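Our collaborator T.R. sent over the components below with a one-line note: 'Predict the complex.' Nothing else. No constraints on interfaces, no templates requested, no preferences about which chain binds where. So this is a plain run: every listed entity goes in together, and whatever single assembly comes back becomes the starting point for the next discussion.
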Amino acid sequence: MGMPEQPLTHVSEFDPEDEYRPEPEPEPLPPTWMDGSMRIGIHTSTAGSYLNALESARRLGCNALQIFSASPRMWQGGPARVPEVDGAAFRARRAELGLGPLVIHANYLINLAASQAMLQTRSIQAFHDEVVRALDLGADFLVVHPGSRGDARVEQAVATVIESVKQSSKRDYLGNLRILIENTAGMGTAVGWRLEELAEILFGLKDVPVAACLDTAHLFAAGYDIKSEAGLTSTLDMVENTIGLEHVPVFHVNDSKIPLGGRVDRHANVGEGKIGAEAFQRILTHPRLGTIPPEGLVGRAFILETPIDQPGDDRRNVAKVWELAGLAAQAPPAEKGFSMLTPAIKRIQEKTASEARRVERAKNKLETSADAGSSGKEKAHKPAAQKTQPAGKSRKSRKRG
Ligand SMILES: [Zn+2]
Ligand SMILES: [Zn+2]
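Returned assembly:
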């Protein structure tokens, strides 16, 4: 039709490309949680079963959640794979509950920036296992900290992180899973507390599906003043100029026990720390941080990693975030009185803590008497970095990365 007739001689030329052209695959439908609504969740416990995390998220009034897929403080925190039957049950129940995104937080021992070859190899292996389990569970995001550089220069550490992520994850089998590199508070020699460092890591991983997770407590402790209105605007501009807000699908919403620029990672209940409720209201209602395009990002999630000191702290923090976001009326209903921390668990925790304190006291006593005998020399040799660690840094606050 309207085309000049082709000379007959060309017809016999067979091009296999012309033989069969499959229809292009239809664009896969976006997951149901990408419905434009705001996604709010909390880190939930998988103790007993992966399914328990889903039920806790539901009972706490969440529509998204974060979990660990294995014990976060052990190299062998469980089987490398999730048994297929468990994975299937988990995926089915999550779909039923409409919870999403599912964020998995990687093990804290993983140090993708490690300059020591043994530790790097171990970290790559462990992170690879994280990727595999995340796929087994049908996770949307896998959050990992860049790690610590030790004596290495920042540029070297950034290159090491890029290499480690590349080695532990190959694009072809990641499917819909995206790896999120989280900003840090900049404790010790932690990499990635500056947005520029995070951006360089992401830039070096252009061929891997990566993006960023920004933690509000870490931003604040790293010196980004998200407390004031002007500070939030300039921080968002800096994010835009480095990572790009469209590359931040997940925020960790934690208040900070540490003042601006304190460079220590200690989470507080939302509204009760140095950032404060007013600032969180600004953050949670900011159009650029919302879920409505063009300024917002569809499916963006806000995940809490707040302390649970009293039964109900988890539920109250989730409710607080819905309220500060101005969405209390649309929030999924929470189950009255439910908490991941039951009075019974709290009693056990208190017993363990007092036992730990007793052991600590006994140890200190021994050390003090040893010091007295060696004119305090040992104390003077302790590295400075250790002294800047908060004395009371408990296991609990550590897990809230
Ligand atoms: Zn943290
Ligand atoms: Zn973290």
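Summary for T.R.: The two ends are 65 Å apart (CA to CA).
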